[in-house]
Amino acid sequence: MANDAVAGNAARTATIRPTGDDDPVTAVLAACTRDLVTAVEESLAAFLTGEIDALAEIDAAMGDFATTARDHVLAGGKRVRPTFAYWGWRGVAGPEAALSPVLPALSALELLHTFALVHDDVMDASDTRRGLPTAHRALAARHRSAGHRGDPDRFGEAAAVLVGDLCLVWADRLLSRAALPPARLLETRRCYDQMRVETIAGQYLDVLGENDPTNWSLERALRVARYKTASYTVQHPMLYGAALGGIGADAPLVAAYTRYGLAVGEAFQLRDDLLGVYGDPDLTGKPAGDDLRSGKPTVLLMLARQLAGPARRARLDRVGTDLDADDVAELAGLVAATGAVGRVEQMISERVAEALAALDLVDLDETARSALTGLAATSTHRWA
Residue 133: beta bridge partners? Predict the structure, then answer.
């Protein structure tokens, strides 16, 4: 039933193409993805119920631990990765293909995403995610309330690493439940593995950049954006969806998806760079200014340093030090004054244009084309 609803909503997007910032594409995409998101979340909830029950048989504490992992998987989020994978698949399989055989594979991407988020929050010492305590903070609080021995924060970090590991294993297990021919599932797995390798490469570069900022550059910041975010947010989910549909790796559509995915994925991260400094915490679920406090060498901050004169650059050297709220506000204003914010906005627009140009070069079902056109805009011009 969910598949029929998704297909029906998707069909209604076929005649709607975004023409500007005021186009109603956001509402249309919300309508066509609502049932997809519901299907993914129902799939995850059913899968996780069985997994938690199995772990609880080992020890009651394991059931509590697994429930923590489940709660972070189901704690909300935009379900961006399954959505891009879905449209990558639809562009190959067509509007009449049944969703149920590939639904486990689409849902597995959310487990992979939770793995990455939980580990990222530990590395960044983040306090909140999606407006709630991060996994390591929640587990540390549980340690304190139980009166256990040892350092609560150390326990929280160790347990959160295991939460992330468990989600990674669960992702593998759920992917294996896709009802596909073995050869197609193997090809999908190859794409999935490459996505994971590139995500880890990007994450390591992100960590390295914070610890070696003097040897960083705008080029390396863009490389982090490509491998940490673009690869596993848009590019590889699109290619993963194409593999689920059974398309060959040398097909023109695969080249178009690659070009589209890199462009939109990089623009997605550039928007995150802006939100990391100027975002509304009530919408992003994270404190504003975290990147300034950590000194993370994002594209935004690298551009600000590049555009700033000597006096402003010296003031920007305070990024990554012990900053209070007034310091963060001052530095945010300074970054904007260099013109870096406007340049990042321009880079986002350029990448969205590049993505749409890639779609124009291939014969693509108009429903999928319309959805991908709209997603390029909504995923890169957002407030959370």
Answer: 128
187-231: per-residue pLDDT in tens? 999 999 999 999 999 999 999 998 898 889 999 999 999 999 999
Q: Under DSSP, is residue 305 helix (H, G, I), strand (E, B) or coil?
A: helix
135-142 long-range Cβ contacts below 8 angstroms, 24+ apart: 135/68, 135/72, 135/159, 135/160, 135/163, 135/164, 136/160, 138/68, 139/68, 139/163
- Joined tokens for residue 10: 């998707």
The residue-averaged pLDDT of 271-285 equals 89
CB distance 159 to 65 below 8 Å: yes
How far apart CA 157 and CA 160 sit, in angstroms, is 5
What pLDDT sits at residue 187? 96
What is the distance between the alpha carbons of residues 64 and 294, in angstroms, rounded to a whole number?
Answer: 32
End-to-end CA separation in angstroms for the chain:
30
DSSP string for 117-150: HHHHHHHHT-SEETTEE-HHHHHHHHHHHHT-SS
What would the DSSP string read from start to end of 84-127?
HHHHHHHHHH-TTS-STTTHHHHHHHHHHHHHHHHHHHHHHT-S
> How many helices (H) does the chain have, and how many strands (E)?
18, 2
Residue 133's φ and ψ, nearest 5 degrees, are: -60, 140
Predicted local distance difference test score (pLDDT) of residue 84:
97
Q: What is the model's pTM?
A: 0.90
Domains belonging to the chain, first-starting first, are: 2-378 (1.10.600.10)
Query: In whole numbers, what is the pLDDT of the chain averaged over residues?
Result: 90
DSSP H or E segment with residue 244: helix 236-245
